[in-house]
Amino acid sequence: MACEMYLCIGTLSTTPYFLSGLGVNVYSMDELCYYLCVNAYILDNDLIDTRLCDYMRDNLGMAPLASKLRRMIREGRTLGEMVTTILIDTNYCTDEEIARIKQILVDNASLSFAAKRKLRGDNLLRANKYPRAIEEYQYVLSVLDREEEPELYSSILHNVGCAYAMMFLLDKAADYFKQAYDTDASRESLVLYLVCLRLSASKEEYDRIVVRNGYDERVALEAVRVMTSAREAPIDTPYSDIMRQILELNDAGRVTEFYAAVDTALEDWKQEYRRTMS
Predict the structure, then answer these.
(1) In this structure, are residues 23 and 129 in contact, taking their beta carbons and an 8 Å threshold?
(2) For residue 238, is pLDDT > 90?
C-alpha cells in the first residue's frame, strides 16, 4: 500500500506554548496551524501576540514568519489577516481551505464579545483547565448584562458550577448551579444543584431546603437517579486501568513491583493535578 510523507514545518520544540484561548499546548507549527484551522470559529483577537511571535522565533525556527507577524501586530492588522498569513507562509492549507477559514473568521465577527469569550471558557473546561476556565467565565459575567442575555448568563453560571464540581468543591458548585437556576429556571441546573447539595450537606439540611423551596418531587427524584447512575456506572478511565494493573501485581505477590507502581502512579497523578490547577 502506498503512503505519503509530509515534511514538518519548522522544528519541534521540547517545551510547549499554551494557547490560553483554546486550552491546548502546542509544540510545533503543524500543531499551531491545526488548532487555528479546527477552532477558526472561536479565535479571538488576542490569540496572536508578541509572546507567540517570540516562541515561534526561539523554539520553532520560524523567525521570518515571526517577524512578519510582529510587524502586522504593530500595524493593527486583523486576526483574519494574521491567521491567513500563517497558513499561507507555512503552506499548511490549500487555497480553498484558506478561503473557507477566512470566511469563518469574518462570520465570527458577528458573535457577541461575551459569546465568544464563553466559548473560550468552554474550551478550557473541556481541556480540564478548571481554574483558567473559571477565570474566563468570571470575566464574561463581569461584563455581561444579566437582564439582556439571561440564557447566556445562566449557561455561564452553570458551567462555572461544572468546573467547581470537577474540582470537588461541591459547596461552590451548588451555589453556581442555584444561581443558574434562579436566572432562567433551567431544570438541568436545578438537578445538579440538588446533587451537589445532597453530597455536601447533611440529609436533614437537604430535606429542609427541598421542602422550604417547594422543589418538584420529580426533580428531586431525578437528582437521586443521577447520583445512583454515577455510583453504578462502570469505571473505565486511565486511572482505573492503572489501578487494575497495580492490584494484579499485589494479588500476584510481586511486592517490590507493586510498591514501585504505586509510587509511579501517585507521582504521575500529582503532576497531572498540578498541571490542571496551574
Answers:
(1) yes
(2) no
Nearest of 44, 156, 32 to residue 109 by alpha carbon: 44
Overall pTM > 0.70: no
pLDDT digits (tens, 9 = 90+) for 54-112: 999 999 999 999 999 999 999 999 888 999 999 999 999 899 999 988 888 887 777 77
Give the DSSP H or E segment for 18: strand 17-19
pLDDT, tens digit (0-9, with 9 covering 90-100), for 130-140: 998 999 999 99
Cell numbers 486501568 correspond to 241
How far does the chain reach from its first CA to its final CA, in angstroms? 45
Handedness of CA 145, 149, 151, 155 (dihedral sign): negative
- Cα–Cα distances in angstroms (integers) from residue 173 to residues 60, 88, 120, 168, in the given order: 41, 45, 20, 8
Distances (CA, A) of 123 to 30, 92, 132, 162, 201: 20, 23, 10, 13, 31
Q: Is 201 helix (H, G, I), strand (E, B) or coil?
A: coil
Residue with cell 483547565: 129
Torsion angle (degrees, nearest 10) of CA 151, 155, 158, 163:
-160
Side-chain half-sphere of 79: how many Cα atoms within 13 Å?
Answer: 20
| Residue (of 70, 76, 51, 59) closest to 10 by Cα position | 59
Q: Among residues 177, 180, 184, 183, which one has the least CA distance to residue 199?
A: 177
